[in-house]
Amino acid sequence: MDQKKICPRFEKALKILNHSWNTLLIYQLLEGSQRYSTIKNQVGISSRVLTERLKELEIENIVKRTVIPSTPVVIEYELTEKGHALAPILKAIEQWSSMWVNIEE
Amino acid sequence: MDQKKICPRFEKALKILNHSWNTLLIYQLLEGSQRYSTIKNQVGISSRVLTERLKELEIENIVKRTVIPSTPVVIEYELTEKGHALAPILKAIEQWSSMWVNIEE
DNA sequence: TTTTTGTACTTACATTTCGTAACTTAGTTT
DNA sequence: AAACTAAGTTACGAAATGTAAGTACAAAAA
Hints:
2 copies of one chain form a homodimer.
Chain A: H1 8-18, H2 22-29, E1 34-35, H3 36-43, H4 47-59, E2 63-68, E3 74-79, H5 81-84, H6 87-100
Antiparallel strand pairs in A: 1-3, 2-3
Chain A binds a DNA duplex through helix 3 and helix 4.
Domain HTH hxlR-type (chains A, B): 7-105
Keywords (chains A, B): DNA-binding, Transcription, Transcription regulation
Pfam family, one (chains A, B): HxlR
């Protein structure tokens, strides 16, 4: 009868984390600051979506974007403190997957 | 140059968890066994997608589906052991969101 | 001086996924 | 017989996603 009484903060967290690629991008950036092209190659995401997601994560203050005025210009992306605070979630997923996920078809 | 060396188990875990609604459904089922219509109303998901996701989670052995031969027939869904093992991930997300997510626009 | 190269995006377009609302099935009560 | 209930299905338009080609800018190469 009544509906969702789920905490809005929690819902927003899920909205961010469940948006496709975001968790993988954060996982990748836990390795440290990285350039756009490095992320793209490592994660195997298209540039269209990568740009979109990095912008989203930047707006959410999870990722910081830095322009390095070299030639040609290079952009570095890194996790903010808020972004680094996601590490325990990723660790928990890692642990669960190593315990419960099998991959033979 | 080289590409993703990400653990395939981890990748599969992300694939399941990031699929929209799945995390929220698991969170809801952590409350205990529930009927189809209850889940639908509590989570606010459409029946088309709900059916799709529950089937997916059942195939992944995260959710168990039980037919109760009442009239009309009722279906109960509950987490398996593998499903319950996801609780620490959800807790970590809860903790992060309470710490870092703010919601005023 | 013109052409090519590298980096970080954009754009156009086809494919896939999603949300909405109406419909189905089967036994039961009215 | 008509209406009701629970758990889905189906049809279809809207939104998100992937793919591939294009853009801007400066400098190095030809």
